[in-house]
Amino acid sequence: MTFREAARRVVEEGIAPSMSHQRVSQLARTDKDFPAVEQIGRSKVADWRELKPYFAAHAKKAATRDSRRRLERGDG
């Protein structure tokens, strides 16, 4: 699926509260653990069966990071 569709699914399935195709693209460029990407025409695509567990793990790490930040600031 395209990065735009992947971003929409991440939000639709409740994996993360927000996601943009730009963020998906950034992760694909910078995260060595990002699933395999192929180019079809001008679009980059990846398999949702690989993307879903990747984003679930990524969201879990982000939530842990955010909760630690809130605790450090005294918000939690």
Low-confidence stretches: none
User: How would you classify the quaternary structure?
Assistant: single chain
Q: Widest sheet: strand order?
A: 1-2
Q: H/E element string?
A: HHEEH
Tell how many strands the DSSP assignment holds. 2
How widely separated are the two ends?
37 Å
Percent of sequence in beta strands:
5-15%
For the residues shown, what is the average pLDDT? Answer: 88
The coarse overall form would be globular
Structural class: mainly alpha
* Biggest pleated-sheet summary: 2 strands, antiparallel
Number of helices: 3
Layout of secondary structure:
Layout: H1 3-12, H2 21-30, E1 38-40, E2 43-45, H3 48-73
Antiparallel strand pairs: 1-2
Report on this structure.
The protein has 76 residues and is mainly α. The protein contains three helices and two strands. It is globular. The mean pLDDT is 88.
The gist of it:
The chain is mainly alpha-helical.
Sum up the structure in keywords:
76 residues; mainly alpha; two-stranded antiparallel sheet; 2 strands; 61% helix
